C-alpha cells in the first residue's frame, strides 16, 4: 500500500487527490503511511487540506499525520488552510500543534497568506490565526513585508484585523504600524465605537482586583514566567 510511482505518489495520495473517501478509509485501515511525501514533498495531509477534503483530515491525524511537515516550497498544511480561507481546518491544525508563525520559502506565514486572500468583509480564518497568537507586525516575507502590510493594493484589511490592531494599541502593547495601516484605521468610522468599547473594558480591568493585582496585569503578564500571580490566575479560571 506504500508503493510510489514516478511522481513519488502513493495510493493514499491519489485517493485523497480524487476525494475518494471509501478508498482512503480502506488504505488507512491497512496502515498506509500518512507521512510519505511525493516529489513535491507533499504528504497526504497537505493534499487533504489543499483540496478541502475535510472528511479525511481527522482520520489522517488519528493515524499519526504530522501537521508541521513542509512541502518543496516549505508550505505546511496550515498555509494551505489559510490559502483556502478555511476556518475549521485552520483551527483543527492549530489545535493539533501546527506552528502558527512558520514561514514558507517566500517568508510568508499562514497569516501573510490569509490576509492576501481576504476581502474587507471576510476574515474568520484570520481570526483563528490571531486567536492562536499569529504575529502581525514583526515577521517579514521575502519582500520585507509583515502581515500588517501584506495585501494587494486593491484589498483592504479585514475589519477584525483592524480590530485586533486597535485592541493591541489600546492595551499599550508594542505594535509598529505604517502610514497606510494608520490611514485604514482612520477611514472606518465604525471602528471608533469599537475602540471606545475597548478602552472602557480596559479601564474596568484595571480597577478589578484579583488578590493584590488588577485584572489587566493578571492577563497581560500571565505568560511572563517571572509573574507571581500564575497560581492565583489558574485558581481564578
UniProtKB/TrEMBL annotation:
Highest rank taxon of the organism: Eukaryota
Positions in coiled-coil regions: none
Keyword NADP included in the entry's annotation: no
Per-repeat ranges for ANK: 7-39, 40-72, 73-105, 106-141
Keywords: ANK repeat, Repeat
Keyword match Repeat: yes
Record protein name field: Uncharacterized protein
